[in-house]
Write a structure and sequence with these properties.
alpha/beta
């Protein structure tokens, strides 16, 4: 089987592209988009042709004949609520990015992939999109009848970490119950039950993180919104990009916070431990959905490299289940592996419908 896959991962200020074959990258590149260049576009969607051309140029610079590839795999964006796993990119999906749930560059992944795949007669896929939503009905209900909870988080990395844990420990992912916490600029947690993400805590309703404010006291937040000091966009920036460690210390780099702790900064120690405690609380919150019957807790993401931070979480949650550390994100490898599972017949791709 031809296993040569072009992988595309559009981010806010870069587009990562790589060619994989036989479970390893032949080459990879991160195309950087300057803020000046991006400012020329009125919307994220307007960046499509620019990013598409630059992906083609990157492949050409690496001497790549795209006619040889078996498929294109791209990061799935926040343009619709979806199931976990692979989706074949089709015209209905391309139409959906015109009216997304959230404006993010990842929405462009499917469109770039299809523009490359269609002319050469291969399939394009997205995998474990940001808006994977398989939550069971009872966890969707809130105290306001017009507000319903939805799944939205670091699904690509969290599901990959859960699957990796199962493979390395002789377990069947589709017959396991695993809690996963993604520890990065944003922090999200998910509950994987028999191959389905039945509940999760998104980064706006759970732990604060290096950049996110997380869950806040509701009355105080409402008063802040109506204080007259902030517009809607400014409030969104407060909770999405200026919250968490940035709000307390002016930096989102957890390594800097750990240096402060080593140097005896008591506030840094308190806030960092509070962030870990919040992660632990969210994992415990998910555990009760399955009456505490959890096979393993997996900590992943960039901050999972920190022995200090993971130890703070471990000591509070290991009474629930063994804790496994699988650091990093590995999104490009995960996208490749997802496409290979479809091509080999191990997994069937969903068909996107309006």
């Amino acid at each position: 089987m031809n296993s040569k896959i072009l992988v595309i991962n559009p981010g806010s200020t870069s587009t990562k592209v790589a060619m994989y074959e036989n479970n390893a990258p032949l080459w990879e590149e991160s195309i950087v988009h300057s803020l000046k260049a991006l400012s020329a576009f009125a919307s994220v969607l307007d960046q499509l042709d620019m990013r598409y051309r630059q992906v083609l140029e990157a492949a050409e610079n690496h001497g790549e004949a795209l006619i040889d590839i078996a498929a294109v795999a791209a990061r799935g964006g926040a343009f619709a609520w979806m199931k976990s796993g692979a989706y074949e990119v089709n015209e209905a999906m391309i139409e959906a990015i015109n009216n997304p749930i959230d404006q993010h560059a990842s929405n462009l992944g499917c469109a770039i992939a299809l523009k490359i795949a269609a002319p050469i007669g291969v399939k394009a896929y997205v995998y474990d999109a940001v808006t994977v939503d398989e939550m069971i009905p009872i966890v969707r209900v809130t105290g306001l009848s017009n507000i319903e909870r939805h799944g939205q988080g670091h699904n690509l990395n969290m599901r990959a970490a859960a699957i990796k844990y199962c493979k390395e420990n002789g377990k069947d992912y589709y017959d396991s119950t695993i809690l996963v916490a993604h520890l990065g600029g944003g922090i999200t947690q998910s509950l994987h039950y028999n191959g389905r993400i039945i509940d999760m805590v998104s980064d706006h309703e759970g732990s604060f993180s290096p950049e996110r404010a997380g869950m806040l006291p509701g009355f105080d937040l409402i008063r802040m919104c109506y204080s007259g000091e902030y517009s809607l966009s400014e409030m969104l920036k407060q909770v999405q990009r200026k919250g968490g460690l940035i709000s307390h210390f002016g930096t989102a780099d957890s390594r800097e916070i750990e240096k402060m702790i080593v140097n005896g900064d008591e506030k840094a120690k308190l806030v960092y431990e509070a962030m870990a405690l919040n992660v632990a609380k969210c994992l415990a919150r998910l555990a009760v959905v399955v009456s505490g019957k959890v096979d393993c807790i997996v900590l992943t993401g960039g901050i999972a490299y920190s022995k200090l931070f993971t130890s703070m979480i471990r000591k509070r949650v290991e009474f629930l289940a063994p804790v496994e550390i699988i650091p990093g994100e590995n999104e490009m490898q995960t996208l490749y592996e997802g496409a290979i599972r479809v091509l080999s017949g191990e997994e069937q791709a969903h068909v996107y419908e309006k």
